[in-house]
């Protein structure tokens, strides 16, 4: 068997320069990398070629749809690795690539310098240099060509030593740069980059059921009641106020208190059973108020520095208008009934799922669902927590999120997928801005360290933003059921300092944890009934939450999960980590560091030896560093690497400090 002869002309057109291992990328460029506006993105690549020529490289980037590339020169690192950083200036989809070329004149300059330093006769080399300049001028824009022609003329008239000086002069270098000569110019594939607003990566969420906000157990709460509560939520330092569904609730198979299937006539039902004769996903539950009331709430929230996040739960109560209007969007059984939804072992008898590939579903259902999101976005809601996305079609999410973001590039989608890691990661790749995580079930030092290491050092770091909820209406964590107040403080400290995104479902601040016996569910869950609470209850942790949220706002190192470093504290129950803030000059110097100690044992006082990370500041083991205790407000100096920490769960089971090099302390 003989291969067709290789076409040499075609082969010679192939790139002479290799550009490999571009980072960050997601699945070789199939999905976009994520970043937020104002945050520098560091691009690296292996760039090399045959021979010894000097190479140059740039990272180029542009907003999708724009013609001109912006450029940043890449610096050469050891072993043919190159790096550059750039900071996107707008939100929305971008693309970036790496370009590299032979720097012919750079090679000439390098070799001429070496030969001259070695004392060789370089007369012929200066002739070669002038010929190279002529070549470069021949393809240069008019003005640059003219400048080069003048240089060539003047240099040709000089003696050898003055020619060398002229060829190596900054003026000649500048003229060559202006000519834009790029031999063997090669560009990598273009990679996607999704630039989100800051809140996609850094936000503090508070979740409540508006119907519980009346202050009176016999009266259904309203949007106007929520408006009254806004200052209190704002004062705790939250930025996002998230509601479970606020749409009409079906009556068929309505759930009663504690998930029973025998509701009384006055039971309010689960808000996830969306749809009734009053309307579906684009309607409001009449008892919560009108669209005007909702608009007033969105505006009042904004006045208080809060944005509203809505639940997007793609499912229908059997009473949803869509069942009658669009039967082809659902899967019917031969007897004309429908299967209720499940997330085994959980049974959702009061809802049915849509069928994304049902007879009339494409495009009808897909478009209708997209339009639901667009409708709420047009009402000023830009953040959506999406219920159970892992049970819905992957292609739908990629299409729908992109469609919404084309119109609303500031839209944010939080994936509520508690499922297999690869499925959670895929949803993030498909466009989810943030994702619920396993944080709620990571309680021990080794498992928290391992989980954060996975999230910050392996592939998900480029596309998966973990949202650390300490509890949800569905998750009353076993740890909190027995830990007492100290446990709530422990979990709050971990969530607020480990991730840029954290959230709590109300009741957490008053250490609510009564469970349905043996289950991770709340007793008398608010999912099925109205709950009135006393926020001033003794033992509440509102001051601590407020302080933690303030610390988060004031310390940029806490605006992401990325960058966490775990340090040695010699006690298996004390988790000890730091988050550095680097100087903006790109030197890699640490400006300051937030250092956190958490006693994970809510019942035992800990005294443990630990190492102060003096080395991170370039300090010797006997060096001294300034510390500000951010929870208590006092300042002190630590001298020497070996120290002891004291953590009393009956007072405060954690410390949050800021370390600053003494030379940087006023
Ligand atoms: O299945 P998940 O654990 O992801 O939970 C989410 O989806 C559930 C279904 O929407 C939702 O469950 C609640 O609503 C159901 C429908 O009304 C009801 O049958 C369940 O009893 C109730 O828990 C859950 O709250 C949501 O977070």
Description:
By secondary structure, this protein is of the alpha/beta class. The protein contains 15 helices and 28 strands. The strands form six sheets. It has an eight-stranded parallel beta barrel with strand order 11-12-13-16-17-18-19-20. Strands 2, 4, 5, 8, 9 and 10 form a six-stranded mixed sheet that branches. Strands 21-22-23-28-25-26 form a six-stranded antiparallel sheet. Helix 4 (142-156) packs antiparallel against helix 6 (170-179), helix 7 runs parallel beside helix 8 and helix 14 packs parallel to helix 15 (542-554). The protein is globular, with a radius of gyration of 31 Å. The mean pLDDT is 97. The site of the ligand O=P(O)(O)O[C@H]1O[C@H](CO)[C@@H](O[C@H]2O[C@H](CO)[C@@H](O)[C@H](O)[C@H]2O)[C@H](O)[C@H]1O has 19 residues, from strand 15. The active site is at 387 (nucleophile), 416 (proton donor).
List the helices and strands and how they pair.
Layout: H1 8-12, E1 17-23, E2 33-36, E3 41-49, E4 55-63, E5 70-73, E6 75-76, E7 81-86, E8 92-102, H2 104-117, H3 123-138, H4 142-156, H5 160-167, H6 170-179, E9 183-187, E10 191-196, E11 203-207, H7 223-235, E12 240-243, H8 291-303, E13 307-312, H9 321-325, E14 341-343, E15 346-348, H10 361-378, E16 383-387, H11 394-407, E17 412-416, H12 421-430, E18 434-436, H13 445-457, E19 466-469, H14 478-498, E20 501-505, H15 542-554, E21 565-566, E22 574-582, E23 590-599, E24 606-611, E25 624-629, E26 635-639, E27 642-647, E28 654-661
Parallel strand pairs: 2-10, 11-12, 11-20, 12-13, 13-16, 16-17, 17-18, 18-19, 19-20
Antiparallel strand pairs: 1-3, 3-7, 4-5, 4-8, 6-7, 8-9, 8-10, 14-15, 21-22, 22-23, 23-28, 24-27, 25-26, 25-28
Helix pairs in contact: 2-3, 3-4, 3-5, 4-6, 7-8, 10-11, 14-15
């Amino acid at each position: 068997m003989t291969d067709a002869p290789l076409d040499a002309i075609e082969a010679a057109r192939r790139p002479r320069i290799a550009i490999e291992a571009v980072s960050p990328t997601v699945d070789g460029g199939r999905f976009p990398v994520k970043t937020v506006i104002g945050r520098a993105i560091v691009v690296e690549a292996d760039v090399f070629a045959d021979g010894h020529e000097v190479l140059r490289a740039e990272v180029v980037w542009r907003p999708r749809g724009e013609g001109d590339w912006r450029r940043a020169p890449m610096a050469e690192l050891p072993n043919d690795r190159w790096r550059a950083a750039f900071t996107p200036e707008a939100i929305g989809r971008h693309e970036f690539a790496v370009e590299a070329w032979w720097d012919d004149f750079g090679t000439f300059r390098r070799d001429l310098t070496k030969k001259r330093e070695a004392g060789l006769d370089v007369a012929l080399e200066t002739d070669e240099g002038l010929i190279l300049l002529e070549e470069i001028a021949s393809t240069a824009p008019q003005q640059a060509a003219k400048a080069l022609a003048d240089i060539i003329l003047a240099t040709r008239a000089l003696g050898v030593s003055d020619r060398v000086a002229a060829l190596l002069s900054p003026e000649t270098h500048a003229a060559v740069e202006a000519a834009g000569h790029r031999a063997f110019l090669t560009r990598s594939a273009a990679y996607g980059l999704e630039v989100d607003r800051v809140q996609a990566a850094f936000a503090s969420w508070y979740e409540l059921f508006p119907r519980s906000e009346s202050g009176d157990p016999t009266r259904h709460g309203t949007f106007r009641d929520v408006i009254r509560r806004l200052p209190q939520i704002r004062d705790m330092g939250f930025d996002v106020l998230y509601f479970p569904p606020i749409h009409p609730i079906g009556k068929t198979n309505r759930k009663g208190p504690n998930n029973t299937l025998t509701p009384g006539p006055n039971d309010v039902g689960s808000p996830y059973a969306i749809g009734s004769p009053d309307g579906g996903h684009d309607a409001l539950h009449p008892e919560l108020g009108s669209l005007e009331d909702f608009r007033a709430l969105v505006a009042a929230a904004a006045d208080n520095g809060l944005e509203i996040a809505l639940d997007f739960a793609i499912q229908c109560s059997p009473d949803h208008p869509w069942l009658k209007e669009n039967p082809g969007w659902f899967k019917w059984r031969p007897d004309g009934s429908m299967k209720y939804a499940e997330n085994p072992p959980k049974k959702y008898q009061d809802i049915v799922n849509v069928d994304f590939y049902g007879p009339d579903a494409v495009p009808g259902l897909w478009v209708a669902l997209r339009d639901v999101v667009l409708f709420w976005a047009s009402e000023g809601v830009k953040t959506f927590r999406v219920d159970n996305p892992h049970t819905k079609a992957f292609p739908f999410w990629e299409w729908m999120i992109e469609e919404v973001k084309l119109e609303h590039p500031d839209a944010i989608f939080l994936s509520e997928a508690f499922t297999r890691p690869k499925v959670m990661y895929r949803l993030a790749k498909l466009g989810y801005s943030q994702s619920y995580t396993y944080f709620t079930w990571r309680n021990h030092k080794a498992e928290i360290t391992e989980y954060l290491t996975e999230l910050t050092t392996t592939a998900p770091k480029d596309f998966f933003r973990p949202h650390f909820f300490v509890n949800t209406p569905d998750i009353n964590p076993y740890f909190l059921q027995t830990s007492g107040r100290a446990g709530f403080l422990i979990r709050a400290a971990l969530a607020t300092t480990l991730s840029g995104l954290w959230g709590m479902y109300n009741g957490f601040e008053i250490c609510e944890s009564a469970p349905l016996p043996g289950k991770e569910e709340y007793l008398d869950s608010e999912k099925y009934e109205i709950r009135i609470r006393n926020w001033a209850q003794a033992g509440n942790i509102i001051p601590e939450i407020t302080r933690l949220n303030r610390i988060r706002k004031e310390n940029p190192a806490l605006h992401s999960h990325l960058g966490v470093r775990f340090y040695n504290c010699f006690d298996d129950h004390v988790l000890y980590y730091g988050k550095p803030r680097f100087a903006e000059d790109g030197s890699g110097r640490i400006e300051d560091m937030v250092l956190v100690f958490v006693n994970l044992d809510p019942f035992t006082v800990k005294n443990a030896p630990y190492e102060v990370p003096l080395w991170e500041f370039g300090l010797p083991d006997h060096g001294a560093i300034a510390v500000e205790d951010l929870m208590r407000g006092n300042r002190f100096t630590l001298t020497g690497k070996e120290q002891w920490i004291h953590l009393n769960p009956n007072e405060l089971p954690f410390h949050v400090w800021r370390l600053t090099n003494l030379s940087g302390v006023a």
